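Hi Y.,

Following your request, here is the sequence exactly as I used it, all 169 residues.
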Amino acid sequence: MPTTVTLKKRDEEGNITKHQHEIEDIDLLQFQKMMEIIKEVIQELKNDDSLREFLNEIFEDDLQTGEVEPEEILKNKDAEFIMKAVNAFETLAIKMPEQAFKLLSVLSGIELPVLQKQKIIDVLDIYDAVVEENDIERLIKRIKKSLGTTAAKAKFLNLARRASAPILQ
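Below is the corresponding structure, written out as tokens. Let me know if you'd prefer a different format.
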């Protein structure tokens, strides 16, 4: 069941209006936009040494052994990274505020300029509602499962075509 939050908008004359906004499970377009933002975050992590601290914070256990490079972790743990990046909104907000607020805007369905003008306590309520309504880890696992099934079937079809090609000629 969607969580309702109250948004305040100020018009050109300074009048404040309040309206209700429902935070729901994300849809396919929101998921696509979330992935684009996560890709931006990953790209920035790869290109900016100072942001590697963020990576160290969320994958501390994996990096303690010293055997795995940060880029390798990103490749091997993309679903875990995405889930932790969404759940690590506070860290993103400090290290990469623009991406954090874009991510929250996409996941909440609230336009970025409207979100940016909310009081911090209200933004935290919006964040809590997004986390409550969406199980990002479950979504990522489900998508991987579906894509894995599709890839396996496509591989089988390609093998079947190759095997039957000499017979047809």
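The longest strand covers residues 3-10.

Thanks again,
Q.
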